[in-house]
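Predict fold of catechol O-methyltransferase; 141 aa.
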Amino acid sequence: MQWRETHRAFWRPSTPTAHRRSGPCMWAPRKVTVVTGASQDIIPQLKKKYDVDTLDMVFLDHWKDRYLPDTLLLEECGLLRKGTVLLADNVITPGAPNFLAHVRGSGRFECTHFSSYMEYTQVVDGLEKAVYMGPGSPEQP
Ligand SMILES: C[S@@+](CC[C@H](N)C(=O)[O-])C[C@H]1O[C@@H](n2cnc3c(N)ncnc32)[C@H](O)[C@@H]1O
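Predicted 3D structure, encoded as tokens:
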């Protein structure tokens, strides 16, 4: 799996010069850094080694039993901010039940489920969108 960190160097839409210069590509990132490695090794390095403050969006699509530990690691490492979006694929098939229980039950995420099918089959699957709302839930005073 590749961890992609997009540098948030966007043109500001309110800047007329930026409008003129960049036209329809105004929101394209100017630089993308691709980091390759195991999620559990990369996540703890993101702040110091890769100068990441917090993440805007995380797409989870690796081994399903890593969804929960990696989500907890992201929280522990302070990489989630209010509004960070986690989008997790295949949460029904093969399934990530402990991840679902955590994001739906911890009180720290607002969750939406998008039902789907496994590609090329009629097998029910789904994506979970979990928006981090910050610490301070009843489980984590
Ligand atoms: C289902 S594939 C999806 C890959 C990619 N998202 C795509 O759609 O093409 C899962 C990939 O995650 C990788 N993977 C599994 N566990 C990982 C981990 N802990 N860290 C990084 N990559 C991992 C696997 O090697 C595999 O290539």
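The pocket of S-adenosylmethionine is lined by residues 1, 38-40, 61-63, 66 (CB under 6 Å).
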